[in-house]
Inverse folding.
């Protein structure tokens, strides 16, 4: 069974410090929902408000339509997977998994049976009698999930559970988490600062900055249609050019930057374009949207000087300077087996299509 | 190169001196426990004997004190471990601003002198008893009850420190995880926090017990008319010492060593297991089957060796200390008597030549005979620290040796001036007698040292002795 989670006008304050500001989010039952943001943006605080470890200073948290105010964490239909997993070190694996049943007074035989079922679900059958410290990192991860699932929550909350794993394992666990979520069909709320995790697993993502929700939408939209300069700079890589809007037309804006005039999509927010002539604006161009002009006509062109070319296997990273400015441009080229067309040190002309670039009102950016 | 050697040598010397300083007293004391000599000493080592252990076990006062100490220790553990735990939990819960104040307050009993705690406990319960008009048999005046409470006031703070250090390593996420999984606060405490604290509870209990067992400052006030091991020992030291105290110390040292050995074995075992399981976790599931079996602690080779060494040592000591001791003692006695007689002869010869020695007066007085035992005892040592009195004193020592009827007084006097080197002879002499008078050992032992450090008291004290 899964339940909707609604955050309605939620504010969380610690003295003067505002950890969450006017958060309004509806998470549908059965959804894999991620909160994405840099550390300290308030995402864990929100999660704790959902799980019941703290009460919002203002506003309501509803789970399955029921207001959760005054209901303690042990009475909520949620289960939390902690950043450090918080497995009980003095219990065996199966005792860990069956803890939720134990505190409900379920008999030992029944507990063991249920634990074995869950161990099978996480592919750790016959590891139940080990101590937690005898397991590897990925196995512990799965035990933590099984332990949370044993409580039969309607909402599973995950607080950066993969951050302690190495890259390979992290990528593997992403797939596995998603698979488990689809199997059990309950609502997952996932906290991460890793956009890769958020983009690969989530149905919907909320991007947060300093306690404020910047944008809520699916991964594709967040990546391709950022609504704020923060989202554009935080999610994925982007080349940024700043300037003033000279002209707005047909959903496009022309921005006069120090690298020349650039035409880009006039970003929408709530369905309406955000820029008008005279506004200060940023133009964001993804590295993979840049091409060598090679004499072809492009909506936008930039003169640049190749500084460095890095080989990364499936693609090349090309770093360029713009003559007359201190800007560095990054371009990604798919490794198609061909020789590099331009030598390091050569002067090139770059082009990009107007609808692959986005113009946004000037605003806060993600820290490098 | 040279300075390097010098450094090494000086470090070695320092370490040696340091260990000597640490363990020297313990070693010397342990040796005295096995010397058949009636006074705890290393040299001359007379006979290797375990008789003092026997004396110890048959010493009713000491045994009663020991029983009381054990009981009080248990009571203190039962009170101060829960209080310490509660105090530590409280410290972890309250806000950091209040915390330092709270810490200062709860830790203050450790900083207050034990004497003050003892007196205040005594006074407090006395007042309370008066308020309720309690009679002297009631618990308000019960030494054991008061001692448990008095000691618990500061031992609770000790155990709190143990709990604090353990709690600082507690991952509070575990508590949250338990709550999140539906456990109540009580369940969380019982199933998560308490198991985590189990080792600390053990340490706190041991610490509390030891602190209670060895406490004197507080106990001496709160114990009223009862006694504990420490108060009995203290009074023994004041009223006469024999090696049975060393025997007690040996028992405690051996138990400590044994306990430390067991602890170390357990610790290494734990460590080895942890290392093995990390290896298993790394190697993957295939290797997991290996090394899963756990040996019980008592089957651990190191444990078996330790136990064997312990038992063998005990057996050897007991055997060596009982077999052949009597012959040895007889031989030692004979040797002493011979030496003493030789000396007496020598002395007599000498004193014939010396006519006008200042100590002569006392000497002649004490020579009086049976009727003058009292007087003799009183005066014989009046000025033992005045070297010019030496002769007279030696003489008075000799007299009782010749006079069987005066054995009692002899015991009293024999040790009076042991710290005055010039008295050595007389002492050896009187000891020879002591071994002959087995049944009077007790009385002698008790009185011999009553106030050895207070020369002013000599007169009145010997008076008391005489009346015994």
């Amino acid at each position: 069974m899964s339940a909707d989670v609604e955050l309605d006008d939620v504010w969380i304050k610690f003295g003067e410090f505002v950890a969450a500001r006017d958060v309004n989010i509806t998470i549908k039952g059965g959804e894999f929902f991620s909160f994405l943001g840099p550390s300290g943006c308030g995402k864990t605080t929100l999660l704790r408000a959902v799980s019941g470890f703290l009460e919002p200073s203002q506003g309501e948290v509803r789970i399955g339509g029921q207001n959760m105010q005054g209901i303690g964490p042990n009475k909520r239909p949620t289960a939390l997977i902690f950043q450090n997993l918080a497995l009980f070190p003095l219990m065996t694996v199966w005792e860990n998994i069956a803890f939720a049943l134990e505190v409900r007074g379920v008999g030992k035989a029944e507990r063991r049976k249920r634990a074995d079922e869950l161990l099978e679900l996480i592919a750790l059958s016959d590891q139940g009698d080990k101590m937690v410290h005898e397991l590897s990192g990925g196995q512990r991860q799965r035990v933590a999930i099984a332990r949370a699932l044993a409580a039969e929550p309607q909402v599973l909350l995950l607080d950066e559970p993969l951050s302690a794993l190495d890259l390979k394992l992290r990528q593997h666990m992403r797939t596995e988490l998603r698979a488990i979520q689809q199997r059990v069909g309950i609502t997952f709320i996932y906290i991460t600062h890793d956009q890769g995790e958020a983009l690969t697993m989530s149905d919907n993502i909320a991007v947060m900055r300093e306690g404020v929700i910047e944008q809520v939408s699916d991964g594709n939209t967040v990546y391709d249609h950022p609504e704020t300069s923060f989202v554009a700079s935080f999610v994925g890589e982007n080349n940024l050019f700043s300037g003033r809007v000279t002209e707005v037309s047909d959903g496009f804006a022309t921005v006069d930057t120090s690298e020349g005039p650039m035409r880009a999509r006039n970003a929408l927010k709530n369905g309406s374009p955000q820029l008008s002539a005279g506004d200060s604006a940023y133009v964001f161009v993804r590295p993979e949207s840049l091409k060598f002009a090679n004499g072809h006509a492009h909506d936008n062109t930039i003169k640049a000087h190749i500084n460095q070319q890095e080989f990364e296997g499936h693609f090349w990273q090309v770093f360029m300077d713009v003559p007359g400015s201190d800007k560095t441009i990054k371009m990604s080229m798919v490794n198609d087996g061909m020789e590099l067309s331009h030598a390091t040190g050569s002067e090139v002309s770059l082009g990009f299509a107007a609808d692959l670039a986005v113009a946004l009102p000037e605003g806060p950016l993600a820290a490098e | 190169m040279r300075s390097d050697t010098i450094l090494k040598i000086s470090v070695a010397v320092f370490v040696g001196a340091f260990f000597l300083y640490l363990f020297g007293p313990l070693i010397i004391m342990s040796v005295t426990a096995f010397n058949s000599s009636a006074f705890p000493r290393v040299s001359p080592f007379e006979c290797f004997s375990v008789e003092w252990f026997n004396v110890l076990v048959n010493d009713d006062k000491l045994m009663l004190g020991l029983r009381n100490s054990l009981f009080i220790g248990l009571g203190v553990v039962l009170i101060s471990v829960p209080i310490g735990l509660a105090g530590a939990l409280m410290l972890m819960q309250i806000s950091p601003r209040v915390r330092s104040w709270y810490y200062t307050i709860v830790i203050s009993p450790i900083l207050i002198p034990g004497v003050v705690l003892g007196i205040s406990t005594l006074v407090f319960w006395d007042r309370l008893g008066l308020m309720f008009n309690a009679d002297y048999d009631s618990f308000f005046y019960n030494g054991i009850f008061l001692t448990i409470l008095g000691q618990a006031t500061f031992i609770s703070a000790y155990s709190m420190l143990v709990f604090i250090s353990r709690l600082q390593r507690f991952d509070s996420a575990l508590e949250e995880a338990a709550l999140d999984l539906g456990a109540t606060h009580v369940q969380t405490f019982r199933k998560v926090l308490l198991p985590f604290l189990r080792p600390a509870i053990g340490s706190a209990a041991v610490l509390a017990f030891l602190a209670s067992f060895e406490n004197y400052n507080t106990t001496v006030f709160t114990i009223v008319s009862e006694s504990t091991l420490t108060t009995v020992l203290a009074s023994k030291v004041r009223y006469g010492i024999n090696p049975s105290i060393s025997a007690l110390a040996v028992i405690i040292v051996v138990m400590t060593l044994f306990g430390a050995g067991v602890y170390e074995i357990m610790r290494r075992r734990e460590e080895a297991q942890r290392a093995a399981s990390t290896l298993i976790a790394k190697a993957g599931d295939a290797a997991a089957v290996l090394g899963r079996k756990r040996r019980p602690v008592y089957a651990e080779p190191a444990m078996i060796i330790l136990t064997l060494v312990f038992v063998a040592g005990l057996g050897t000591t007991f055997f060596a200390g009982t077999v052949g001791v009597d012959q040895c003692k007889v031989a030692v006695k004979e040797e002493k008597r011979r030496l003493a007689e030789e000396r007496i002869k020598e002395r007599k010869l000498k004193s014939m030549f010396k006519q006008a020695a200042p100590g002569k007066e006392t000497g002649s007085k004490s020579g009086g005979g049976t009727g003058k035992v009292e007087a003799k005892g009183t005066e014989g040592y009046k000025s033992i620290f005045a070297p010019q009195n030496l002769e007279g004193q030696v003489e008075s020592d000799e007299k009782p040796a010749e006079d069987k009827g005066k054995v009692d007084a002899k015991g009293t006097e024999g040790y009076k001036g042991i710290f005055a080197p010039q008295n050595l002879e007389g002492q050896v002499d009187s000891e020879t007698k002591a071994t002959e008078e087995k049944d009077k050992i007790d009385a002698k032992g008790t009185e011999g040292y009553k106030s050895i450090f207070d020369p002013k008291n000599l007169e009145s004290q010997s008076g008391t002795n005489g009346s015994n």
